[in-house]
Write a structure and sequence with these properties.
Length: 299
């Protein structure tokens, strides 16, 4: 029987993905966060004629209830992998909140991945349930974040969300993803960022460098034309092509990623990289899904 809104997770056809088997579920089409580096940009614009505004999927709840009857509930559901489940529109539509509550009532395990502090609104329904949250924070600099993730809440608010979730015993990790040369690659800032999120309560870090594809690269050079030449050299001359993407050279990737994982390791929390093909992981899962069952389920 076909699934309508829950899908087997597709890591953008990457041969380097190490995610455990999982589903992905996006309550929204489009993503108002409009991150310049978004790997889903070409996919999103195919369905929205170029608009990135988040819109709830049609007949979402009805189709979700259909899929819940079919899926293997031992596999986690990642909300979401190609649009954020907490865009500003969620304040009005509440479709993520409704979906979460239905999925949990039916015994599903959920990994929430978001760039929004709005997730704390739903603590009342995710508390004491098989849910973990991964919050993406790419920089401590609110001004830079406003340029690269124009529709998302500032990093300072996301760090407060990490703290609030941790205080409420919701397992939470942070994605420092992607690291983009010349924008958020300052090694001291990356170290500080790791320390701040750990002191806020993050228990797992996933990190990754930006991988260039045609659509996101075009967006980046539109906003940062001054780096076009340097990026072209790093990616298209000195870098390597893996699957559909242009990567930085291994040495440069190791340099950026090492500072993050060393700092995480010093503080004794788990860490992993995402689609890097490098042996830089100390964690049962890369994506944070191992945190799901670590939430203390109280009777
Ligand atoms: S939040 Fe995620 S899906 Fe949304 S625009 Fe940013 S990278 Fe893309």
């Amino acid at each position: 029987m076909p699934l309508y809104v829950i899908r087997e997770f597709d890591p953008w056809r990457s041969p380097l993905c190490t995610c455990p088997p999982k589903y992905s579920f996006q309550p929204y089409t489009g993503c108002s966060h409009s991150c310049l580096y978004c790997y889903a940009r070409s996919y999103i614009s195919r369905f929205t004629r170029g608009s990135f505004i988040s819109r709830p999927k049609q007949n979402l709840i009805e189709r979700l209830l259909h899929d819940i009857r079919i899926i293997d509930k031992s596999k986690p559901i990642n909300m979401s992998t190609s649009s954020d489940p907490y865009p500003p529109e969620e304040k009005k539509f509440l479709v993520t909140r409704k979906s979460l509550s239905i999925l949990l009532r039916h015994g599903c395990k959920i990994l929430v991945t978001t760039k929004s502090n709005l997730v704390v609104r739903d603590i009342d329904i995710i508390y004491n349930k098989p849910v973990a949250v991964m919050i993406t924070i790419t920089t401590l600099d609110d001004n830079l974040a406003r340029k690269i993730e124009p529709g998302a809440p500032p990093p300072s608010e996301r760090i407060s969300a990490v703290q609030k979730l941790a205080e409420n015993n919701i397992p939470v990790g942070v994605r420092i993803d992607p690291i983009i040369p010349y924008l958020n690659d300052d090694l001291e800032m990356l170290k500080e960022l790791v320390k701040e999120v750990i002191s806020a309560g993050a228990r797992h870090i996933v990190t990754s460098t930006y991988k260039a594809d045609r659509v996101s690269f075009k967006q980046l050079i539109k906003v940062f034309p001054e780096y076009e030449g340097k990026w072209r050299k790093l990616y298209f001359e000195d870098g390597e092509k893996i699957g559909r993407y242009y990567y930085l050279s291994q040495d440069l990737r190791k340099k950026f990623l090492s500072i993050i994982i060393k700092t995480a390791d010093n503080y004794g929390i788990t860490y992993a990289t995402c689609r890097e093909g490098l042996p830089l992981r100390k964690s049962p899962s890369c994506d944070g899904s191992h945190l799901i069952l670590s939430q203390t389920i109280r009777a």
